[in-house]
Design brief:
The complex is a heterodimer of chains A (about 210) and B (about 375). By secondary structure, chain A is an alpha+beta fold. Chain A is built from 6 helices and 9 strands, in the order αβαααβββββββαβα. Chain B has a 5-stranded antiparallel β-sheet with strand order 4-3-16-17-18. Chain B is an alpha+beta fold and about 375 residues long. Chain B has a domain of about 190 residues. Chain B starts with a strand and ends with a strand. Chain B is about 30% helix and about 25% strand. The chains are: A alpha+beta (about 210), B alpha+beta (about 375). The interface between A and B is large, with 57 and 90 residues.
Chain lengths: ~210, ~375
């Protein structure tokens, strides 16, 4: 972009040359969009409603299936999402898919949690993905519907897991972030609160 | 110091587009303004701005050193208790800082008066380091400025050198609100500098910042972020849900958490208490301090946390000169002696002095019509007139 000046006195108080490698020509906005829209890493996963279905698929050994199911089942009481009311729980997970939390874990007493619908594992051991419970994802469901229907599943922190065949197939490819326990969206809320309250009404950022 | 009509380059908008300067000011208004420029003498720049900036920054570092060990000071700054260890540890560990901007009231005569230190999330950086520099070079080439005109502006070189010093060959991620063009532009510029310094860089929106099971901050593909530049104020980060995770994270930050001690108007009261005779410091007191009465009926009242001049009240002899609205002030206020911005043909310039690392690196001038410089202020170039 910019070229160095032909001559700058040695006592100059400014940069001798200024060069940009990312911004030049592109425009910051175009650059931003290109960089934000990066594709996410994906993972191959297997989902089974129980160890028997897992064993019948002959991808993993029956012993592995039982062990993985037990690990997911053990993670369920504390890992299940909590809702204040049964209606809120059913709005996410479907009618009759929720339980009073006290039946599942003391820490969930007084709240509602979804039933564990299935367990999820990585297709290959080297993925090192911890076996985990998943829940029916049935937002806005108004009738009983069929169990494990086309809405697919979600993880305890809201990651979407959609497998083929209307959700009954056992294998799928999902965004890594959906099945790895990282939390997102934990920064930014405070500033948005200030922006919306700004006198000018402009969407201001964190700079100044 | 003079405000000199020079006339804008007819093609400056094309030049801006060609150089990635596509973000604009508040409400989409153009805020680069080069019909006029501010002329300084070399003496004004070196004696009145550069030297005091270095000295004030050093005073600020000395203050941080004491503040992190004194919970009364941390409490006076309204920093939440859960953040104290994070702030303290980052200072004791020697976490490096990248940049900041000291804002002065200065009219070319007498000492520049420090109004505040935007030590955490200053913008107008690209405008200073790149576009203002390019303006000077083109104005020299076209004869718009006399030969020998110069500019106090090594911001670009200094940023690259600083990145090299902080993390040569390392990884760094940049985050901001991606949908706020001014913030996105500033961060894109910093990413450019870091790339030139040999760092491996990436950008992510604030919402794409995750917290991994081991306490590392991660991106959407769960790759840990060892070093994160965030154009997002610490006091907001502390208040956010992830704020509680900062104490235990192995991730490091630019600016480091100890900058929260400086990017806070409470700093001004503490600096004055430590150096009451300093020529560049205005008397300043916490609103809860009875000594504030010494300021009489002329003062500026500022929230501990605020940006872009929001919620600043200015009184002269009891008359309200400005009373800016905004969402800030819940954490309390300071009162600062009144140093009105000078008036050049009805325009009120605010002189910003950049610090990169720990040294002064350049100037930017923003001007508005009012007593308080807001996000509607225009960014105006400066030059050092030849002798």
């Amino acid at each position: 972009m910019t070229s160095p000046p032909e001559s700058v006195a040695p006592t100059s108080k400014r940069s001798q040359s200024v060069t940009l490698v990312l911004m030049a020509g592109a425009g910051a906005t175009a650059l931003g969009l290109a960089q934000i829209d990066q594709s996410q890493r994906e993972e191959d996963i297997l989902v089974y409603p129980n160890p028997e279905a897992c064993g019948a698929a002959h991808i993993r050994t029956e012993a592995d299936c039982r062990r993985d199911y037990a690990l997911a089942r053990a993670a369920y009481p504390e890992g299940a999402p909590r809702y204040a009311t049964e209606a809120q729980c059913e709005a996410h997970h479907g009618r009759s898919h929720c339980l009073p939390g006290g039946l599942v874990a003391p820490s969930a007493a007084g709240r509602f949690v979804p039933m564990m619908a299935a367990f999820l594992v990585g297709r290959r051991p080297e993925q090192d993905l911890p076996p985990q419970p998943v829940y029916d994802h049935r937002p806005g469901e108004t009738s009983g519907g069929t169990p494990h229907g086309g809405g697919g599943y979600c993880t305890g922190w809201g990651g979407r897991v959609v497998t083929g065949g209307g959700g009954t197939a056992s294998s799928g490819r999902v965004a890594s972030a959906a099945v790895r326990q990282a939390a997102f969206g934990g920064f930014g809320a405070t500033g948005r609160g200030f922006s919306s309250g700004h006198a000018s009404g402009a969407g201001r950022g964190g700079g100044g | 110091m003079r405000r000199v009509p020079l006339g804008a380059r007819p093609d400056w908008r094309e030049t801006a587009r060609a150089n990635g300067f596509t973000f604009s000011g508040a409400d989409g208004a153009e805020y680069w303004s080069e019909g006029h420029a501010y002329a300084f003498t070399l003496g004004q720049v070196e004696r009145d701005i550069e030297a005091p900036s270095a000295e004030l920054h050093a005073l600020c570092r000395a203050f941080v050193s004491d503040a992190v060990e004194d919970e009364r000071i941390l409490a006076s700054l309204a920093l939440p208790e859960h953040a104290w260890d994070t702030v303290r540890t980052s200072w004791r560990r020697g976490d490096p800082s990248l940049y900041g901007r000291l804002d002065f009231a200065y009219d070319g005569r007498g000492p520049a008066k420090l109004l505040e230190y935007n030590a955490d999330t200053p913008t107008a950086l690209y405008e200073t380091g790149v576009f203002q520099w390019l303006w000077l070079e083109e104005a020299l080439a076209s004869g718009r400025l006399p030969p020998g005109s110069d500019q106090f502006n090594t911001v670009h070189d200094d940023l690259i050198a600083r990145f090299r010093g902080i993390a040569a060959g390392g990884d760094i991620a940049f985050t901001a609100y991606a949908d706020v063009p001014e913030d996105r532009g500033t961060v894109a510029y910093l990413e450019d500098c870091a790339r030139q310094a040999g760092l491996v860089t990436r950008f992510l929106d604030l919402g794409d910042l995750g917290l991994g099971p081991d306490g590392s901050f991660v991106d959407r593909v769960l790759c840990p972020i060892p070093l994160l530049f965030k154009l997002y104020p610490w006091e907001w980060a502390f208040a956010d849900r992830f704020g509680q995770a900062l104490a235990g994270t192995p991730s490091r930050f630019l600016e480091p958490p100890w900058k929260a001690v400086l990017s806070n108007k409470g700093l001004l009261a503490h600096l004055y208490a430590r150096e009451p005779g300093h020529p560049n410091l205005l008397p300043a007191f916490f609103e809860s301090d009875p000594d504030k009465a010494r300021l009489g009926r002329s003062f500026a009242r500022k929230p501990l946390y605020s940006r872009e001049g929001a919620n600043v009240l200015i009184l002269r002899e009891g008359h309200v000169l400005a009373n800016a609205g905004g969402p800030y002030g819940a954490e309390g206020f300071i009162r600062q002696g009144l140093a009105e911005l000078p008036d050049f043909d009805g325009w009120r310039p605010l002189v910003g002095a950049w610090i990169v690392g720990d040294a002064p690196a350049g100037l930017c001038v923003r001007e508005g019509r009012g007593a308080v410089t807001t996000d509607a202020a225009l960014c105006v170039p400066h030059f050092i007139a030849p002798v």
